[in-house]
What we know:
Blueprint: H1 2-18, E1 30-34, H2 41-57, E2 61-65, H3 72-80, E3 87-92, H4 93-102, E4 113-122, E5 124-128, H5 137-146, E6 152-155, H6 161-173, E7 178-181, H7 185-193, E8 199-203, H8 204-212, E9 217-221, E10 248-255, H9 260-275, H10 277-285, E11 289-290, H11 298-316
Amino acid sequence: MMKSSFLALAATLSLVAGAGAQTAYPSKSIDLIVPFAPGGSSDVIARITADEMGRILGQSIIIENIGGAGGAIALAKAARATPDGYTFVIGNAGTNAAVYWTNSDVQFTPDSFASIGLIAKTSPVIALRNDFPAATPAEFLDYARKNPGKVSLGHAGVGSSNYLICQSFVQAAHIDVTLVSYRGGGPALTDLMGGHVDGVCDAASSVAPAIQDKRVRGLVVSSATRLAQLPDVPTGAEAGIPDFQAEGWNAFFAPKGTPEAMIGVLNAALRKAVASDNLRKRFAELAVLPASGDEFSPAWVHDFVPREVEKYRKLLVK
């Protein structure tokens, strides 16, 4: 796999250089827009992947964090960027699918972007502050139902993937809580550790280290089986919330009009990065499942996003 990925990358680089370009692509650093503040799930996955891709491409990939509006501000900037192969963005179910149902002023559409490829899939987790007055999922549900609106759960902004985790959890658990918006999962987790909110809705890739270090307490994970990285955190079924089953995702997108040859270079670098032992080790530590097979394909992501848009219409539009 490593050899074939390298050959594909070399062939695509040659294609770009031979298509009349003055110099081979990329010939300078590349900007990667992250639609949230540093420290959240998308930011962590972007940084790990960009670091590996940068080594493969021989150019720095510079992270630009742009928070706000559940990622819509960053996606709008990415959509407006010059389609020259030197700007791309990491997106997820919130920024590229649910946003159309949670933000009435979205300044882009799915057609504003050229898909590069899926990076990874993530497992949503609900975590609580250590001193929350409920030790088990059953006790938490009992407390929340007896105190409607009193429990506060932080997320990365309305329309973000973390917001979707909150909505899925609340609907599956049949509870009424107060959702608190932040500019990213990182600030929400920081406030949780400081005791300013009762819990957060996030992906294991972001919150697992804090749970492992006992800075916060894992309540429930949405995966079908327990995560090896969080063996003490029960699944939704085990916690008495069988409908809390979901899987997050992250993918790379470029502005519409980015030359296909450059998309090919980035796609080949992504495939090679995800196949690397270093990245797979980092992903495993964070309970992140690497993309595989057709999921890497720009065409697969292009067809996948509209299905996600419809999925969240059903979840969010009443």
